[in-house]
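DATA CLASS: polypeptide
GOAL: derive structure tokens

***
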Amino acid sequence: MMGVINMAHGEFIMCGAYVTVGLVHGGFPLPLAQLCGTIAAGLIGVLVEVAIVRKFYKRPLDSLLATWGLSLVVTQGMLILVGSSVSGIGTPPGSFMVGEYTFSVYRLILFAGALAALGLIYVVFMRTRFGVYARATMQNPQMAQALGVRVGRVYALSFGLGAALAGFCGALYAPTMTLIPTMGATFVVESFVTVVVGGSNVLLGTAPAGVLLAAVRTALNAWAGQIIGQIGMLIAVIIIIRVLPEGISGFLTRRQR
């Protein structure tokens, strides 16, 4: 939406996870620590937008190189500061059974958190004045500025919101995974291919694209392991882009007409 390829997005996920775990180790309750991790990632995102990203709007290749360099600096800096790994906090207790299978209650919380994030983004961008300003700024920043919209502030808040969502992801996943400085990179491939498959309308296409690719990968993981699951997901991406060059959102838009 903003004409920027952010290769450092995974580092905001890492930020949310590290802040969450650090605060839990310091005695904070998990929900409060997760909230703080989300806010910390959002605030850092605003600073990154003002200091670096703002200079590269509508220059996707330049933004890719700049944010990739930022990703390398942050990753190596964290390796120096905190080491190769940080002791985790463990998944909160609680489970339930469906037939012969046992599932963690916290996994349901992750699912609910994803739905809540999607709902929040829809409300913010489609039902609030800020959402109108943001969509106008993304479509035609010169016209929006001429009509009195503070374009720079809208860009900073929008980028910060994206960083906060990444931090929220890391905060939610923190109890379920090993924390290492390169952990954000494991999310980047899936994030980018999901957005590409979703199409130009991020709000309309990302959710069904995520569900579709997750179903393909999960089924193949259960059948033949994680490597085959990853390969199968990427093959599915190639097929979908070949069949639906405008992405899922383009297909849905044509159907609505």
Observations:
- The longest strand covers residues 95-98.
